[in-house]
Amino acid sequence: MKIPRNISGMEVIKVLVKHYDWEVYRRQGSHVTLKKKSETEILTVPLHASLDVGTFLAILRKANIEKEDFLKKL
User: Fold this and answer.
1) Distance between CA atoms of 74 and 72, rounded to whole angstroms?
2) φ, ψ for residue 6, nearest 5 deg
3) Rg of the chain (C-alpha set)
4) In the structure, what pLDDT confidence band is assigned to residue 25 with cuts at 50, 70 and 90?
5) Can you list the domains of the chain with their CATH numbers?
6) Cβ atoms 21, 35 nearer than 8 A
7) Which of 34, 59, 62, 70 has the fewest CB within 10 Å, making it most exposed?
8) How far apart are CA 71 and CA 74, in angstroms?
9) What per-residue confidence (pLDDT) applies to 39?
């Protein structure tokens, strides 16, 4: 599945919170830090209008989420 070029940081955050049990931990400037309740792992998502493909894939890799599964939930 091809990655859309216009995925915003806010869209990524909404899907992570709704479907993958991440919660907003804090916001500092133009970045939001997410955290899972059961883990110490944190995830930082920039609040840009459109994320670079590399940034988007790095977020998914760190969150341990398959690209196809995430894109179905957008």
Assistant:
1) 6
2) -120, 30
3) 11
4) very high
5) 9-72 (3.30.920.30)
6) no
7) 62
8) 5
9) 79
8 A C-beta contact, residue 36 and residue 42: no
Q: What is the DSSP letter of 3?
A: P
Nearest by Cα to 35 from 66, 27, 50 = 27
- What digits encode the pLDDT tens for the residues 33-68? 999 988 788 999 999 999 999 999 999 999 999 999
DSSP string covering 14-52: HHHHHHS-EEEEEEETTEEEEEETT---EEEEE--SS--
Note if the pTM is more than 0.90.
Answer: yes
- Residues 66-72: what's their mean pLDDT? 96
